[in-house]
Design a protein that fits this description.
22 strands, alpha/beta, 5-stranded mixed beta sheet, 4-stranded parallel beta sheet
Length: about 475
């Protein structure tokens, strides 16, 4: 964990940098679907358009932008360094350029956006459909198997050819369809709409009687699929290596790790709400939902916008016991093993603080499912008086803790107001977990000590970096 917070800088100084490897694309117009993108811009009458590229495609940004300007006559801006994950549409950066629409290139989480019209262009990565079909036959020799085929979005263009090869042999195979945004109309019986995918389950027992075959490399998308549909056996085919395999991720062990974090959230008294997206529909509603949940649970909360979270950033908030990350379905599953404090998802926080929600074996990564009117929303139960509450023991510390909801009145003053009467003399005191935590620390930062420091002449200072000054080990005069 120590290396996550500091280093001596030697690794960065000795690292050899080479030219970035270009993506395997021979036809720029075909890879980036220039015709479809230009038709989208012209059809919408957009005058300013933002092009968002991930790091691995940024080398082609100038060429693509020049062709788009020539084909549409629109003013084009390139978004390189995204505010959060590159899979999400960066509406904030696009609005800084006063863009009227966004063309999002590369892998995407397909989370619906709030404001700007978006066209997703995934990039047509090559796929050997024949070799993929062979791997599928090796993994599923029973031709009557119920299998749902999922794919990374960059291989969606080749799913039609794969479907033509496998459907005649496997009558019970189902291919998912990539859907950008929320599909219109009500959900049909047996239909699944999640993660930007849409498919109809044919198995008599529902989705749990189906196997999953994923076309794509190992990554956050596959992990999210496996945790959500944890009752289904998974297999995958990696087009970069042309190898198929049965996924050996211990889903039960991963879920046990997440349930341990739920227990940590129950013990927490101060929770930091991390804003991990500013563009996904419903993020403001879920922020308010989490604040109300924590208020009813008797926990203090802080809302923090720190961009892309890392251990060094979050270590600055020592008074926070646990963090909850509000992000898209892929970025919310953050591995916090190197962090000073754990990071949980909104679903895990609700498992910890909402007594009406129980663990059923189904895991949710989309925070919109928790909002009122959604499929998994559960109302908070009425408050229970403290004398009637059932005692709860922490499985981590062994201490008693409050596990019931409080009937606290909603704050009438702005949240930033932290002054309250301290005693009968009407003296004012500040009530803040951060201030209380600062008072308990022996070192509180640099102090001015005006008038107490003797005046001296300027002298030569120390040289080097803080972890290894040049004069260390030598006697000071």
């Amino acid at each position: 964990m120590a290396t996550a917070f500091s280093s001596d800088g030697q690794a960065a100084l000795r690292r050899e940098l080479g030219p970035a490897a270009a993506a395997p694309r021979g036809d720029l117009d075909g890879f980036y679907e220039m015709g479809r993108a230009a038709a989208f811009v012209r059809g919408g009458g957009f005058r300013k358009v933002a092009l968002q590229f991930p790091d691995q495609l940024l080398a082609d940004a100038a060429a693509v932008a020049a062709r788009m300007e020539a084909a549409t006559g629109a003013e084009v801006y390139v978004l390189g360094d995204t505010t959060y994950g590159s899979c999400c549409v960066d509406e904030v950066a696009a609005e800084h350029a006063c863009a009227e629409a966004v063309l999002h290139y590369g892998p995407a989480c397909l989370s619906p956006c709030r404001k700007l019209p978006v066209l997703h262009i995934f990039g047509q990565q090559p796929l050997d459909a024949g070799r993929c079909a062979e791997a599928f036959r090796e993994l599923y020799p029973d031709r009557q198997s119920h299998v749902v085929v999922l794919s990374d979005v960059v291989y969606d263009h080749a799913m039609g050819e794969l479907e033509q090869q496998l459907c005649p042999e496997y009558p019970n195979i189902v291919f998912s369809r990539v859907v950008c945004g929320d599909p219109p109309g009500p959900t049909l019986p047996g239909e699944v709409r999640q993660f930007g995918r849409q498919f109809l389950v044919k198995a008599p027992g529902g989705l749990q009687d189906c196997a999953m075959f994923y076309v794509g490399a190992e990554g956050l998308a596959l992990t999210s699929f496996m945790l959500t549909w944890n009752l289904c056996p998974f297999s995958s085919f990696d087009p970069t290596t042309s190898c198929g395999r049965r996924e050996t991720l211990n889903v039960n062990r991963a879920l046990m790790r997440r349930l341990y974090l739920v227990e940590r959230a129950r013990d927490a008294r101060v929770v930091g709400i991390l804003v991990g997206t500013l563009g996904v529909v419903g993020y403001l509603a879920v922020l308010q939902h989490l604040r109300e949940l924590l208020r009813r649970a008797g926990k203090r909360s802080y809302t923090l916008a720190v961009g892309k979270p890392n251990p060094a950033k979050l270590a600055n908030f020592l008074e926070v016991d646990i963090f909850v990350l509000v992000a898209c379905t892929q970025n919310s599953l953050l591995d916090s093993s190197d962090f000073y404090r754990p990071v949980v998802t909104p679903y895990e926080l609700e498992l910890a603080c909402n007594p009406a929600r129980e663990w059923t074996g189904s895991y949710l990564t989309d925070f919109r499912d928790l909002l009122p009117g959604a499929c998994a929303h559960i109302e908070l139960p009425p408050a229970v008086p403290g004398v009637e509450a059932v005692p709860d023991i922490s499985l981590i510390t062994g201490e008693m803790r409050a596990a019931h909801l409080y009937d606290l009145p909603a704050p009438q003053l702005p949240p930033s107001t932290t002054l309250a009467c301290r005693d009968q003399t009407r003296a004012l005191a500040e009530i803040s977990p951060a201030a209380s935590f600062l008072e308990s620390r022996s070192w509180r930062g640099l102090e001015q000590q005006l008038g107490q420091t003797p005046i001296s002449k300027a002298v030569q200072g120390r040289r080097g970096i803080a972890i290894a000054y040049e004069d260390e080990g030598q006697e000071q005069p």
